[in-house]
Design brief:
Blueprint lengths: L12 E6 L5 E6 L3 E8 L4 E8 H10 L2 H7 L7 H19 L1
Length: 98
């Protein structure tokens, strides 16, 4: 399983451990991922996604999963999140037409 947030696309970064004697060794900074069950208001169902803690804070700030997905670009979303985004768009277009 990849260590990548399904909503923001953030992944591992590379840097150095720097010792007291200034010796630099490679290390990886892993994102703080946690499995979260997120509720879609438009679809009326819950989705289980692996997201970063920063993405959870952003979801709360923006007002929910649907609004976040509609404003997010497709290149940073995972294929599962893109599928949810398409479903939300279709449902909102259907509600707007009716």
């Amino acid at each position: 399983m990849s260590r990548r947030c399904e909503l923001t696309g953030v992944g591992p970064l590379v840097g150095h451990n720097v010792s007291h004697s200034n010796i630099k060794t490679k290390r990886r900074f892993l994102p703080a991922l946690s499995p979260a069950t997120l509720q879609s208001d438009a679809l009326g169902q819950a989705f289980r996604l692996r997201v970063s803690n920063k993405a959870l804070r952003t979801l709360d700030f923006k007002g929910g999963l649907d609004i976040f997905l509609l404003s997010a670009s497709d290149d940073q979303l995972s294929p599962r999140a893109q599928k949810i985004k398409r479903q939300v768009k279709a449902k909102l277009a259907e509600q707007k037409a009716a």
